[in-house]
Amino acid sequence: MFNVSVYGSCVSRDIFNSRFVPDYKEHFHLVCDQQHVSLISLMSPSIDIDTENIEGVVSPFYKEVFKQDMDKSYLKKLVEMKPDWLLMDFYTDAYYGACLLHNGNYMTNKLWQYKKLNAFEQLQPIKSLSFKENTVEFINKWKKAFDSFINNLKEMSPKTKIIVNKAKFIDNLIVDGKETLLSSARKDPFSIDHINYVWNMMDDYAVRYHHAHALQFKEDDYHVKDTHPWGKFYVHYNEAYYLDVRNKLLDIMEKE
C-alpha cells in the first residue's frame, strides 16, 4: 500500500476515485489532495480575508477550493502527512495561471468563478499571469514557485518522491461512435497547442531540473468522453486513461 498525495486537477485526482478506478484502495492510500490551485498561488503568502461566510452561485467543491486558494493550507497538510509519493499535474497553471493582488500576493486566476462569491469584493486583482497574456513572464514566475515548493518539500518531507502526470488537452471527442473535434463545438478563444506547449514546459522543468518521475501521455491513446461524469472537456478522458495511469503509477512505485 502506497501513501499518496495529489496536487493538480481531476486528471490526477480521479485515479483515486472508485468511480474511475474501482480497485484503487487495494493499492493506494490517498492521504491529502489539492485541486485547482495555482502553484504560484500556493507558494505566495496566505490572503487574509473572511472565508467563513462565503456565498455565491458555485458548487461546495469550488467554495472549498477558493478557501484553500486563500489560506494555502495544502502545504501544512503535506508536511503533516509526509506521503511516500506526490502525484502532480500542472493543469491549473497551464490553463488558468495566477493573478497578482494589490498587496503583492497571488491567487489562482479563476476570476470568472471567484467573481460569483461575495468574498471577491475583499480582493483587488491587478494583473493576470497566464499562457494568454504574458507567457514568458508567467513561466519564469512559475519556475521560481516550483523551485520554492521543491525546497520546502525537501526540508519538511524529504522522503516524499514526486511523479509528474504529463496529461494534456486533447480535442478528439467520440459521440455515438463518431469522432469530432470538441473545440469546434465549444469555439473556445484559445489554442490547445499553445496550452499544451506551456504545460509541457512545466513538465520538462520538473523532470529535468528536479528529477521527478514522469507519467508519459500519448494523446492518440485516448479521447474526450461524451458522457464523462464531469462533462465534456479537453481533460475529461475515456475510461482507459484512468486504468492506464493506475498501472503506470504502480510500475514506478514498485520499482523504487
Tell me what you see in this structure:
With 256 residues, the protein is α/β, with parallel strands linked by helices. Helices cover 39% and strands 19% of the residues. The chain is built from ten helices and eleven strands. A five-stranded parallel sheet has the order 2-1-3-7-10, sandwiched between helices. Strands 5-4-6 form a three-stranded antiparallel sheet. A hairpin with a 4-residue loop joins strand 4 (98-101) and strand 5 (106-108). Helix 7 (135-156) runs parallel beside helix 9 (192-210). The radius of gyration is 18 Å and the shape is globular. The two termini are 13 Å apart.
Task: List the defining traits of the structure above.
single chain, 256 residues, alpha/beta, five-stranded parallel beta sheet, three-stranded antiparallel beta sheet, 10 helices, 11 strands, globular
Question: Could you write a compact summary of the structure shown?
Answer:
By secondary structure, the chain is an alpha/beta fold. Helix content is 39%, strand content 19%. Strand 8 (172-175) and strand 9 form a beta hairpin.
Write the layout of secondary structure elements.
Blueprint: E1 2-8, H1 10-13, E2 28-35, H2 39-42, H3 60-71, H4 74-81, E3 85-88, H5 91-95, E4 98-101, E5 106-108, H6 111-114, E6 125-129, H7 135-156, E7 161-165, E8 172-175, E9 178-181, H8 182-186, H9 192-210, E10 213-215, E11 224-225, H10 239-255
Parallel strand pairs: 1-2, 1-3, 3-7, 7-10, 8-11
Antiparallel strand pairs: 4-5, 4-6, 8-9
Helix pairs in contact: 7-9
